[in-house]
Description:
By secondary structure, the chain is α/β, with parallel strands linked by helices. The chain is 44% helix and 8% strand.
Amino acid sequence: MTDLSIMYSGGLDSLIMYNYARYHGFDPICLYVDFGHPYADKELKSIKKNNKWTPEVEVIKLDSLYKLVESRLSNQIIPSRNLLLSTIGAMFSPRVWIGALDGEQLGKEHDKSERFFEDSTKLLTFTNEFFQQETIIEAPFANMSKSETIKWALNVGKVPLDVLLETSSCYSGTDEKCGKCLTCIKRYIAFLSNGIIEPGYKTDPLKSEYFKELNREIPLALKNRDFSRFTPKRIKEFLDVKEMYGDLIDSN
């Protein structure tokens, strides 16, 4: 049995998570679950990159699931996704890593919250006690922003920038980087925070409706000291990006 299961998506976070695990002495197995979602082909293409920074990934096919639950989806979020991933990961090892970053614990879906990781750890420890004394479900980047994980990858993990840029973090089923979806905007801002203007988006992320929403809501949250949606760290990083790239943002 391996010491760690990483629930791997082929995206930026999971690639950094794999290299973070190796840096800290783990010998992980990386598991990709194909739900049949529209952007699965892009993710599968990304995980097949053959270099020392990307792992060998076991692909688990549940590709009929997406169509069965599609009517229930909101913003491409699959109900109970992280609980299902945790359960699968715990079949392979006593420790499971799920991609969840600072601020994502506040999301409406709750399966990235602190309570989710605490309760799923208790549940899977109970259900798997015949196989392993304890099962730990955790988010290694729970206290790090996407910007900080990129900074770690470049400066500590020594992952080349071109490897990070080849990952797939977009909900579009047709475009490589649509520039409109939530994941595209978060990713683009995180690279900006590290002084990098990421190329290749079909549309300018700074013109997206989601970015315009952030541009309205984040300063308002700071003014009202309301951290129910955005953590102080995320607010600071966004405002720092606005200061660094004010001309670029204002032109949009």
